[in-house]
Specification:
The chain is an alpha+beta fold and about 170 residues long. The chain contains three helices and five strands, in the order H-E-H-H-E-E-E-E. About 35% of the residues lie in helices and about 20% in strands.
Length: about 170
């Protein structure tokens, strides 16, 4: 004999399936976002910090913590774009390639500041310490500023109004 389902059960079951479908979509989006973030390298708060003060910057403000992973991802995308740009010189493409290969080896300081009345964000990248002694134990409190150092140290400025990186600088070599 066939099992007959009344209309109330079918509505309830259909509602459960609809909810499950939406939940799976949300779950899928969350999982994909985590995969993308995991591939970005400098993404956990262990690898970055926001500074509330920095010598040489005026109108310092602290960017929202939740915006940091996107800013760092935008910096990586910017570097990838420079590397693909036909107007970028071969030497600079090689140096940028080194940055991208070492992406997981960076820390980043984030400093909000004002320049000519515009809100800007400086991303200051420098190498993580891989030895028992941290070369920059002060990095969560004070700006890491190094002359030379090559591709191990680089900066990018993000214009909050336009949502674009407008400045990029690799340190030179001694």
């Amino acid at each position: 004999e066939r099992l007959r389902l009344d209309g109330g059960f079918r509505k309830w079951f259909g509602g459960c399936m609809l909810w499950l479908g939406k939940s799976l979509k949300a779950y899928f989006v969350i999982v994909m976002a985590l995969i993308v973030i995991a591939g970005c390298g400098v993404t956990t708060s262990e690898d970055w910090c926001t500074l509330s003060h920095a010598d040489g910057f005026s109108g310092v403000w602290k960017p929202k913590t939740e915006t940091v992973p996107r800013l760092i991802s935008d910096a990586k995308t910017y570097l990838e774009g420079l590397q693909e740009n036909s107007q970028t010189g071969d030497y600079q493409k090689g140096e940028i390639g080194k940055n991208l290969k070492r992406w997981n080896d960076y820390r980043c300081q984030i400093i909000g500041y004002k320049k000519d009345g515009k809100k800007m964000i400086r991303l200051n990248f420098f190498p993580k310490s891989h030895e028992s002694k941290d070369e920059f134990p002060y990095w969560r409190k004070d700006l890491v500023l190094v002359m030379d150092g090559g591709v191990s140290f680089w900066q990018a400025d993000y214009d909050v109004t336009t949502g674009e990186i407008i400045y990029f600088r690799l340190n030179g070599y001694a």
